[in-house]
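Sharing in case it's useful to others searching the archive later.

Someone asked me privately for the predicted structure of ATP-binding protein, so I'm posting the question and my answer publicly. Question first, with the sequence:
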Amino acid sequence: MYLSSYSLIEPEDEFYFYIPSWLNVWESHIYNKALKATRAQGWGFKRFGTRRELYAREMIRKPDYIKYIEALEQASDIALQQLAAKVRMQLIKSRTALFYVDSWGEAGLYENMSSALHAGIIDTLPKNLLKKFSVNGFTCKMRGEKQSLMQAMRVAQDYLNWDICDFVVICAAYRSIPLLVFSDEDIAGGGKRKSQDTNVNLSVERVGCFIFSKRESALRIDCGGYIDAGNDIHRAAPLITAEAPIDRLFFTGLRKSRAGSALLKATEAAGLAALNLTEKYGGSGCLTPALSWVALEQQPPATARTIVPDNYGGYNYFDTWRD
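And my answer, the predicted C-alpha cells:
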C-alpha cells in the first residue's frame, strides 16, 4: 500500500523533568523500576497543554487536555490538505475506513475533564473526524500500547488488498501520562541493578494522521509479520535479511535488553545503517514507528525497515520504499 499523505504534530514547548514525590508513592516506585529497565538517570516530558503557573511537580501530571484534542484536529486538517484537490475529492466520495489509534484506551480517567463530549473524543471515536473524511466504511478504535499503530497498519493493508476500501485513514494520538509511560517500560523480576547510562529518557506527546491507499505515491509501505525471537538472536535473523535490499534499519523502544544489543551488533556486522528513533526524537509510544518516515524524508531515496519490539522478546516490522 502507499502512504498518500501524513501529518505529525508535537507540542511547541520545553521538556520538563519528572521529580518523584511522596505524594505519589506508587508512581515514584514504578518510575524507579522503569529507570532500571531502560538504564537511564532521569525522565523528561513534553506534553500538550502544560501550564507554567502550576506547581512544578504537577505541571506534567495535570496538563490541559483541550490542546491535545485541538492538535489531533489540526493534524487531520494538514494531512487532508496535503492531498491534491482531485485525490481529496476522490477520498470524500470513495469507500473510506477510519481507525482511531492510541496507546492506553480509555484514558479519560487521567484527565481533569467534566465534558461528556470531550470524554467521548478521547475514549471512543471523534465524530468530527468521521464528518471531515466523509467516512462511509468501517470505523473502530484500536488500543495496543506500543504496537497499536502497527496493528492498524496491518489491518489497513488487508482492507486495501481485499478491495474492501479505497482509502484508509488512521488517526493516532499518544498521551504521555507519567504513570502509564513508566509502567509500559517496567520490567518484571528482581536481580542486581545494572549500571546506568548517562542518558535521560525523553517522552514526547504527538498526534498524527495517515492516509493510505493503493494510489502510487512517494512512500510505499509493506507490513511484515510478527517474529517471536525471545532471547534467541538467531530467531530474529529475518529482521536484518530480506528478499529486497535494505539500506537502513530504524529501531524503536527504550529497553536495553541483551537480545536488543545482540540485534544491533548483527546489524552493524551486516553493514546496515541503524538509527534508534526513540533516542533521536524522543519516545511517543505507538507513534514512534511513524518517525521513520520523517527520518527518511531527511535523507536520499532509500529502502528502510522499521522494527518495533514488544515487551516479551517479539518484533513487528514494516518496510518503506521512498522514491
